[in-house]
Structures are given as structure tokens and as C-alpha cells.
Amino acid sequence: MGAEAPRLLLIHTGGTIAMAPGPEGLAPSLGLLEAAIRRRLNAGVELECHSFAPLVDSADMGPSHWNRILDIIDSHPDHPVLLTHGTDTMAFTGAALDRALTGMGRRVILCGAMAPLDHDGVAERTLDLALELTRIPKSGVFLAFGGRSLPTAGLVKQHSHASEAFDNIPQTPSRAPARRRFDDRKLAILTLSPGLPCEVLAAQLAALDGAVLRLYGTGTATTDPALHCVIENAIRAGKRIRAVSQCTRGGLAPGTYAAGAKLWAAGVKNGGTETPETALVELWIN
Is 60 helix (H, G, I), strand (E, B) or coil? Predict the structure, then answer.
């Protein structure tokens, strides 16, 4: 018997890369992406396509979509994966897949573009890079974008429309998660800001099962006792709160300033150098 033909799993969720001009502007174009990929595959490569129907704007992506993607990946254990996705929530999906697939030995390449195929050539070059990356026999989840390959652990979208829109913040190596799917708990990212009324924060936490709390600098917050009371009451009620810095780099350093001491004493967990996206995923699966 001859060698088995190479395989590739395409999961097409949507995004600008596979849109075409229409009467009201750019809109998903069925079959456009699949045809572009088939033209680029070497002879004998077995392509398995799974396109979301309808295709999903990345602004609508969430835990149920992540679970669907993971189910498709699990059902094709011998395939490297190419996942197309819109850019707006690429960092969230990247973090979700990176954490959920830790230790599974899978290779997943995410890709997307700021402009569609048949526009300026950038999307075509991105597909070329993504396909090249799927052929590398190394496990992990990576983004092909702007001519670069970036780990999706610590992925951040730093520009709303530039061709090099993404960067990567190095993260602590992940461990196998407690679960590999995302449940229906209500979680969110909350940001402290000067003058934020404590009753607003309390109302937000009352509606949630847990939250990522973006603190100032190395991990400080207002010394207002009312805020500390809100946090303490939420944690006593069983809500998990994980803190990250509002700074892009550097992370948290509990104990550096007294202005954050009561948060740590109340049971707020230290997310260290985690991005908000990574911290949110950690709350979901650990």
C-alpha cells in the first residue's frame, strides 16, 4: 500500500477574508474561501471542509462556537487544522483554543484578513502562509496574519485596521485544563476606572458568576472601603474574580503597593502577565 495522502481540515467560521462586495457593502460569499484554498493545495491533499451555516461575524463568536470548533477538531484526530475567523474576537478564540487543546498534540492555524480575497493580495498571501504553517509537524495554536506567525496564547489585537493588527504577549506555559469545553456560566471582563461608582460594579458582579478585573499598573485600585466591600461580598457569594493589569505588558506584582493589598486579602486571584482574553478563558475551564 502507498503512503496515506496528506490531510487538512478547514473550519470556516466567517470573517472579512471570505467576503465579496454586494449592494450594501461587503458580505459573506459562499464557496469563495474553499475555492481559493483548493487552488493552493498540492495534488493528493485530502481537504475536509466544515463551513458554519450561516457564517458568523466574529463579533457574535462565543463559548458555544468554541465548543463547536473543538468538537469538529476532535472528530478529525489526524488532520492539521486551518481555521478562518474574523479579526474582532480572534484573540478570544485563539486563547480559548490554545487552553482547551493544551496537551492534545494538535496543530491549529487561525487566519483572517482586514480585506477580502481578490482585493489587494494580502488575504491571498495570508492563506499561503497559513497553509505553509499547517504543514509544519509541531503542535500548538498559531495565527497567520500580516506575514507573521504568532502563538495565540497572549494574542492581542492592537490596531483596528492595520495589516499588522496583532501582537503577542508572552504567557506562562499553560497546563492541561480541568475541562476542555466551555459551559454557560456568566463571565465578563470588568475594568476599573477613576470615579467608577461602587454600586455599578456591584450590579455588574451581581449578574455574573465570575469576572476578570482589570486593575491599574502592577495591581492597584482605589482605597475606597466601599469598593473593597463589593469585592469581598462577591467572593463570599462564590464568585471567582481573577485580576490582570490594564497595562499591555509587565503584568501584576501583588504586594508592591498598599493600594491593592485588600483585594488580594479578599481572595482576588492573580492573573500575572495574562491578557484579559487568557484570564477569561482560565476562569471558564479551570
Answer: helix
DSSP string, 210-243: EEEEEEBTTTB----HHHHHHHHHHHHTT-EEEE
Distance CA 261, CA 221 (A): 9
pTM: 0.94
- Cα–Cα distance, 42 to 48 (Å, whole number): 14
* Interatomic CA distance for residues 190 and 205, integer angstroms: 9
Q: Which CATH architecture has domain 7-168?
A: 3-Layer(aba) Sandwich (3.40)
DSSP 83-97: EE--STTHHHHHHHH
The domain locations on the chain are 7-168, 187-285
Q: What is the pLDDT of residues 162-172, one digit of tens each?
A: 888 999 999 99
User: What is the CATH T-level fold of the domain 187-285, as seen in this structure?
Assistant: Rossmann fold (3.40.50)
Which residue from 212, 225, 218 is spatially nearest to 268, judged by alpha carbons? 212
* Cβ-based neighbours of 102, under 8 Å, separated by 6 or more: 174, 175, 176, 177
- Residue 2 reports pLDDT greater than 50: no
Q: Are domains 7-168 and 187-285 of this chain identical in fold?
A: yes
Instruction: Tell me the pLDDT tens digit for each residue of 198-251.
Output: 999 999 999 999 999 999 999 999 999 999 999 999 999 999 999 999 999 999
Neighbours of 122 (CB within 10 A): 18
Amino acid 5: pLDDT: 56
Which H or E element spans position 38?
helix 32-40
Residue 277 binned pLDDT confidence (cut-offs 50, 70, 90): very high
Taking the C-alpha atoms of residue 195 and residue 281, their distance in angstroms, rounded to an integer, is 28
